[in-house]
Specification:
The protein is mainly β. The chain contains one helix and 15 strands. The chain starts with a helix and ends with a strand.
Length: 254
């Protein structure tokens, strides 16, 4: 038995040695396709060379009012875009599928109110029509502000609690970096693959490839309905608090 095992070991070792001698390093080298060259920004906030600039302080030509598709009417001053609640939500003219999105937002330093009535807005990663239809990443003051945790900043509204709360004080700029994977559908309208999202909030991972159950809803359970590429929408929430602001918004199609 001992000699049999020894013989088997010798044969096995010989087999692997022979294979190692026949294999070459280039057998596992891949040379094409060559990734395109992308020039990064000078800091992590700056747009890379292949980004689509959605807002950099030079106007709202990439945006429209979500309800009637008229010219966007939010307030622009310097490099800052401030929500104008009188006019409602705005969304991009361009429709997207999968993308990387960067944006910065700030709740006013003198913000009043509590809970959901404290600098409320939202980034709809895919807008599905008028009002708040779509998939919302919540924007809200979450610095010492108690609310339901699947509705705080960094949450996928009413679906995903953020993994951490890295929110800064009111008056300070906050950053979202988002990877959005749109859902896909079969011919009959059934879901082929669900939507997924990864979110970094002020550089901290708060949503890790989360699978959405469907569009986000204020009331009721989410349910998918077939759709294609969609705009990115920013919410003008109807609460009574001072409106918040955005700046430095860019997107990279994936």
């Amino acid at each position: 038995m001992k000699y049999s095992l020894l013989f088997t070991a010798v044969l096995t070792g010989s087999f692997f040695m022979a294979n190692a001698q026949q294999a070459k390093p280039e057998d596992t080298e891949t040379w094409e396709p060559i990734p395109k060259v992308v020039t990064p920004g000078t800091s992590f906030k700056d747009a890379p060379s292949d980004a689509i600039i959605l807002f950099d302080g030079k106007g709202l030509d990439k945006w429209v009012q979500a309800d009637d598709q008229s010219d966007a009417k939010w307030d622009v001053k310097g490099d800052v875009l401030t929500v104008n609640k009188k006019y409602g939500n705005i969304e991009t003219k361009q429709k997207f599928t999968n993308y990387q999105l960067h944006l910065e937002w700030k709740v006013p330093a003198n913000i009043e109110g509590s809970g959901q009535a404290r600098g409320n807005s939202g980034v709809f990663l895919a807008s599905l029509g008028k009002g708040d239809a779509g998939y919302e990443l919540q924007v809200l003051d979450s610095y010492n502000n108690k609310t339901y945790v699947n509705g705080m900043a960094g949450s996928i509204y009413k679906q995903a609690i953020p993994l951490a709360n890295p929110g800064r004080k009111p008056g300070e700029w906050q950053t979202y970096d988002i990877i959005w994977t749109a859902p896909t559908f079969n011919e009959d309208g059934s879901v082929k693959t669900t939507a997924k999202v990864t979110v970094f909030f002020n550089g901290v991972l708060v949503e890790n490839n989360f699978e959405l159950k469907g569009p986000t809803l204020y009331i009721g359970k989410p349910e998918y309905q077939k759709h294609g590429p969609a705009p990115i929408k920013l919410q003008a929430h109807g609460d009574k608090s001072e409106p918040l602001s955005y700046r430095n918004i860019w997107v990279r199609e994936l």
